[in-house]
Amino acid sequence: MNLNRRKLLSWFGLGWLASLLPSSLIGCSEATTPTASSSKSSPESVAAAPSGNFKAIGTVAQLDKDKVLVSSDKTIAVVRNPSDATKVLAVNATCTHKGCTVAWNSASTEFVCPCHDAKFAADGAVRQGPADKPLQRFAAKIENGQVLVSA
Ligand code: FES
After folding, report:
1. Distance of alpha carbon 54 from its chain centroid, rounded?
2. Which domain holds residue 58?
3. In this structure, is residue 115 part of a structural domain?
4. Which residues lie closer than 8 Å to 26 by C-beta, 6 or more apart?
5. How many domains does the chain have?
6. Which residues pair with 69 in a beta bridge?
7. φ/ψ (deg, to 5) at 31
8. Which end of the chain is more exposed for a tag (fewer CB within 10 A), N or C?
9. Is residue 119 within 8 Å of residue 112, measured between CB atoms?
10. 135 lines ligand 1 (CB under 6 A)
């Protein structure tokens, strides 16, 4: 009888643990569900609170006025895509040759390094050495008048 009682109590214990598991899973899925649905929400709501790793580098008005947006730490440069002006391209502004900061030349639509004259296309591809590696690319987008970059 005593053995049956122990067995019964252990089954209740397991049942209690098993009953906690689904609620834990639901708790996790509730935390992820709003994020999944927010990605389907309107661009305005996403721009109001940039999701994921995207952060605002500047405004579209600034970009159109200056032809380039540079992050406050000077590591990210964003320009309009010369092939599709509705899109933006973001690159790491650090030259892949020796690490100088490249500058955007809007007339020739390329990044130029002031140290040894390497040239890079708007998408970071090498146009002229001595650099032999492209500038690192970052995902970038325009939302609600803001230029957002994921770096
Ligand atoms: Fe840019 Fe040398 S550091 S070309």
Report:
1. 4
2. 38-150
3. yes
4. none
5. 1
6. 78
7. -70, -30
8. N
9. yes
10. no
Rounded CA-CA distance 143/88 in Å is 11
Inside any domain, residue 1? no
Q: Residue 122 Cα, ligand 1 centroid: separation in angstroms?
A: 17
98 C-beta closer than 6 A to ligand 1: yes
Minimal-distance CA residue to ligand 1 atom 2: 116
Instruction: Give the position of tokens 């690159």.
Output: 91
Distance CA 135, CA 123 (A): 8
User: Does a structural domain hold residue 14?
Assistant: no
Cα-trace Rg, the chain: 26
Residue 101 has what DSSP assignment?
B
Q: Which of 101, 115, 135 to mutate to test the pocket of ligand 1 (most atoms within 8 A of CB)?
A: 115
pTM of the predicted protein model = 0.66
> What does each of the 151 residues of the chain score in pLDDT, given as a tens digit?
455 555 544 544 444 434 433 433 333 333 333 333 333 333 333 344 555 689 999 999 999 999 999 999 999 999 999 999 999 999 999 999 999 999 999 999 999 999 999 999 999 999 999 999 999 999 999 999 999 999 8
Residue 127, domain CATH: 2.102.10.10
Indicate whether 24 belongs to any domain. no
